[in-house]
Amino acid sequence: MFLGIFVAAIYVGCTYLRQVPRWAVAMQRISGSFLLFRLLIEFSLSRQPFTFLFSAEIIIECLTVVSLLFVHRKLWLHFGFLQVLKVVTLWTRLDAGGKVLPKYSMLARFWVKLGIQVIGFVYIVTSGLQLFELIGDPTSAIEKSRFELNWINSLYFTVVTVTTVGFGDFVPVTFLGRLAIVFVIIFGVFLVSRGVTHAVDVTANLRSGTGSYTYK
């Protein structure tokens, strides 16, 4: 979990600087080597190796490993941000087993879990949108759009979009960027509205003593 957070933090810094410092190259390659070693161990211990290889979680892990192992100073844009998805998944599993924050109330654990899921969702969408926009046509995006391709502006655009505010001051212009934002609008708005409704219901029920929260 901590390795995933570390990789995600370095990724944000490198995308904002648009370069990878030498120390960051070394740290990312070390992280990639560790992830590869762990992946090989999990594969060797798996009873169903083919099912293991083609699972969504392992595909994400492989993309991350390749990105980290082959990173260099000018290759600041890669799939390392997907490690956050694994962090969120791991926290959810630990939460389901009651292994995190056992001394806190049920309501507090629920809000912590929800906060981690929201932060993870926003981080992944922000990084993914920036990736797709740059892959789509970086020259066109830089010359023709007010959507300046840095992580902070992508974060701002993501929050404005999923909250349905829609100021319109930043817009993706490439095909891949627009395709990505279509899915963000469809699924992001639905997930945010569903999450808010669920949070209000759970909080009201727990405070009134008329319900309970089941870990999922």
Automatic annotation (TrEMBL):
A cellular component annotation (GO) from this entry: membrane
GO molecular function: potassium channel activity
Compartments where found: Membrane
Family matches, as SUPFAM superfamilies: Voltage-gated potassium channels
Keywords (A to Z) from UniProt: Ion channel, Ion transport, Membrane, Potassium, Potassium channel, Potassium transport, Transmembrane, Transmembrane helix, Transport
InterPro entries: K_chnl_dom, K_chnl_Slo-like
Membrane topology annotation: Multi-pass membrane protein
Gene3D superfamilies: 1.10.287.70
TM spans (from-to): 50-70, 75-94, 114-135, 147-167, 173-192
Domain of life: Eukaryota
Pfam families (UniProt xref): Ion_trans_2
Residue ranges constituting the Potassium channel domain according to the UniProt record: 134-198
Protein name according to UniProt: Potassium channel domain-containing protein
